[in-house]
Amino acid sequence: MHKLNRLKNLAKEHPVIIFYLVTFLISWGGLALLLGGPDQITAQPTKVPFLPLYLITVSGPCIAGILLIGIYHGTEGYRKFISRLFKYRVNIKWYAIALLTAPVTVFATLFVLWLFSPEFLPGIFTYGDSPVASSFGLDGSNKMTLVLFVLLIGLFNGFVEELGWTGFVTHELRWNHNFISTGLNIGVMWGLWHLLSNYTGSAVEAGNFPLPLYLGVLLFSFLPPFRILMTWVYAHTRSLLIAILMHASLDIFWILSMPNVLTGQQRVVWYLAWAVVLWMVVAVIKWDSNRKDRPKKRTFQ
User: Fold this and answer.
1) Cα–Cα nearest to 299, from 181, 185, 171
2) Predicted confidence band at 196 (pLDDT cuts at 50, 70, 90)?
3) CA distance linking residue 273 with residue 265, whole number of Å
4) How many CA atoms lie within 13 A of 258 on its CB side?
5) Residue 25 CB partners (closer than 8 Å, separation 6+)
6) Cα 17 from chain centroid?
7) Given its phi and psi angles, is residue 129 left (phi above 0), alpha (psi -120 to 50 degrees) or beta?
8) What sign results for the dihedral spanned by CA atoms 262, 267, 273, 279?
9) Which residues contact 92 (CB under 8 A, 6 or more apart)?
10) What is the reported pTM?
């Protein structure tokens, strides 16, 4: 009984850790079951349909966030959660930052790389079949269909994921951390959470490039700094709606910008270069924040 009470107290004191555990259990456990067991998880293409794999993965943070808000904060927690979800009255500049950070940084990165190699031209600006569209079973040559589909999936993905990542975790961590440490904490776990779903079938994308290194760059290069920027925006808006839109923008323009033909090594170059751009943005924001806060240091509250 003493050990049980101790576990309960630990759970009460560490809601973020509990969120991570529940999220990974749902997403990774469900993915493994759909694939037929842990021994069926492979980097080779799978015959299991994409849709159920996708839905079980994104359900993790959504279910964990909604469930734990009730457990830790009860009815009042849900009331405040709904208020943040529908908070749309914020300065227009935060809408601009949320919607434009992803396209500006990713397209700028690709166009600079394109100056050195034509393969880096963003896929949305090229002719021919899009491998992204083909992977979803769409007409690879129909750009309008691709854009509409990606728009819908981006908004859906941003909605279900941010109910947990921002709606619960960011809101819990914000009391004792600044936006850099909060965003880095979530960003690393966000990348790790993508590991199993991105590992499945990743051998084709990686090609001859070492798979562990490829996945490491994919998951931990641009995702952490982008999450830091999301946390910074949330710190100034307290709007879950804005976080959802910023996440949706990342997914939409990441997919639409993806060049049609890249080797594993070229993808790594792209992701690392994009990460450098995002980290530069983070550095500028941090410098500006420190300049404004002197001599008093402000925390993320």
Assistant:
1) 181
2) very high
3) 12
4) 23
5) 60
6) 18
7) beta
8) positive
9) none
10) 0.91
Query: What is the number of other CB atoms lying within 10 angstroms of the CB of residue 144?
Result: 8
Q: Are 101 and 249 in contact (CB under 8 A)?
A: yes
Q: 233 versus 201: which is more confidently predicted?
A: 233
d(CA 221, CA 230): 15
For residue 187, pLDDT beyond 50: yes
Are 278 and 229 a contacting pair, CB within 8 Å? yes
d(CA 2, CA 8): 10
Residue 211, judged by CB atoms within 10 A of its CB (0-12, 13-18, 19+), counts as middle
C-alpha span between 262 and 270 (Å, rounded): 10
Check residue 297 and report its DSSP letter: P
HSE-CB for 198 with a 13 A CA cutoff? 18
Q: For residue range 45-84, list pLDDT tens digits in order.
A: 888 888 888 999 999 999 999 999 999 999 999 999 999 9
Predicted confidence (pLDDT) per residue in 153-175, tens digit? 999 999 999 999 999 999 888 76
| 134 token code pair | 């083909």
Please tell me the predicted confidence (pLDDT) of residue 211: 95
Task: Find the range with the poorest average confidence among 4-18, 20-34, 172-186, 273-287.
Answer: 4-18
* Angle of the 15-35 helix axis to the 50-85 helix axis, nearest 10: 160
Q: Which two tokens stand for residue 190?
A: 């966000």
Report how far residue 181's alpha carbon sits from residue 173's, in angstroms, rounded to the nearest whole number: 9
